[in-house]
Amino acid sequence: MRQGWRWFGPRANVTLDEVRQVGATDIVSALHEVPIGAVWTREAVEARRDMIETTPAGRAPLLWSVVESIPIPDAVKRTGGAAKPEIEAWIASLESVAKAGIGIVCYNFMPVVDWCRTDLDFVTDTGATAMRFDFETFAAFELHILQRQGAERDYTPKEQARARTRFDAMGEGEVADLTRNIASALPGSTTEPMTIPAFRDKLDQYRDVDAARLRRHLVEFLEAVTPAAEALKVKLTLHPDDPPRPLFGLPRVASTQDDYAALFDAVPSAANGMCYCTGSLGVRADNDLPVIARRFASRIHFAHLRATKREADPRTFHESAHLEGDVDMVAVLTELVAEDRRRDKGATIVFRSDHGHRMLDDLRKDVTPGYPATGRMRGLAELRGILHALGHPPERPAA
């Protein structure tokens, strides 16, 4: 297995030398500056690759091994195979990535918003901060800020009353922060920032898209792009929904073991794989993470290893330390190591620590929400320790 690190490009607040210092060897990145739906040119991809892989004298080499993500335009999610120009542009970006020698591409298929949190700096019992999804606060946003039509049908009278009380207690600053957290696109998001009116308009465009239709659109997308991925020798890895359940009255179709099984049955190509995210899948108590890893082992080419902790209301959760919370990371890594040992050289699983706590010096400076250096370094060190204990230390790139 190889140690990855998500890097947001030359303007990121973590430098490539700092990535080397934490022990990571593989970069997970994207051309975040390119608008969603625009084609990534070969020249732009190769320039970013050269920035990452040109090793200064005396430094350890880094490899750009995973693209996370090439965003899928909204039209594809709403109309599937009918969005031919958008799919063709996505394939053109895939070709640029493959020609630059990058063999793993992560993507998601979450409509309107992708990963969603209500709080970016929830104070934990150590004094470090974490990201949190609070169900009651989310309900307050949906019912009283977004004012989604028909939202009340998704909440019991008691839940509606608690949401009203929660909203009434919010000041203007908290309302603005919550709106920004949910509607303005979190770091690495593959959806566009939205105003509240634009958010409502976008939801209205999905009024006829139920789970069956969204899944069909995903299958149509995969049927179009997987032959290209096969020819280019690229592995496509679908990230789970985060949180793994419907939001805003919208369906989500990559939340459970059965969701992935349906997609792999529909498009059985070996290029059709998964990004195994323990944090996203682990939010649901009915997702048995070691079983999922064992069942889909050959499909896992990229892993996000993090843990979440469900609270008293299990719909509320926060990001825990990597070896705490509701994820049995030792059991998970035992399954991934077993699969990794079966693979040919060059086909090893790339993993990265994900969503570390904001702690120590990062509490005193601006950091990318979910991606502080120190918290992720702690997580990576803990994961590396498990791999050594399992007798399968991470690989290192050739100098």
From TrEMBL:
Record key words, sorted: Iron, Lyase, Manganese
One of the GO BP terms on file: D-glucuronate catabolic process
Domain of life the protein comes from: Bacteria
Catalyzed chemical reaction(s): D-mannonate = 2-dehydro-3-deoxy-D-gluconate + H2O
InterPro entries: Man_deHydtase, Xyl_isomerase-like_sf
Family indicated by similarity: Belongs to the mannonate dehydratase family.
SUPFAM superfamilies associated with the record: Xylose isomerase-like
Cofactor: Fe(2+); Mn(2+)
Record protein name field: Mannonate dehydratase
Keyword Manganese among UniProt keywords: yes
Molecular-function GO term, any one: manganese ion binding
Its biological purpose: Catalyzes the dehydration of D-mannonate.
Pathway this chain belongs to: Carbohydrate metabolism; pentose and glucuronate interconversion
Record EC number: 4.2.1.8
Organismal lineage: Bacteria, Pseudomonadati, Pseudomonadota, Alphaproteobacteria, Hyphomicrobiales
